[in-house]
Write a structure and sequence with these properties.
By secondary structure, this protein is mostly helical. Helix content is 90%, strand content 0%. The radius of gyration is 23 Å and the shape is elongated.
């Protein structure tokens, strides 16, 4: 039974995504501002996390370089 689930899980995911797309497209016009708001918020969160990760990486690299030059 488990092997059948694994075999068909790819097609199940595809059908689920297709159903989700049809649900979003089929919604009324009042849903579109909410979708754009969700997209804006998620983009802002992802951008902030990427920026903070980059700054942490640069800071750790600079700290390592300073430590190596002092020794």
């Amino acid at each position: 039974m488990y092997k059948l689930t694994v075999l068909f899980s790819g097609s199940l995911i595809i059908h689920t995504l297709q159903d989700l797309i049809h649900f979003i497209i089929g919604r009324s016009e009042s849903m579109h501002p909410m979708l754009f708001l969700g997209l804006f918020i998620s983009t802002s969160v992802i951008s902030t996390l990427c920026y903070v990760s980059w700054r942490k990486y640069v800071g750790e690299r600079n700290r390592k370089n300073i430590r190596d030059h002092n020794n």
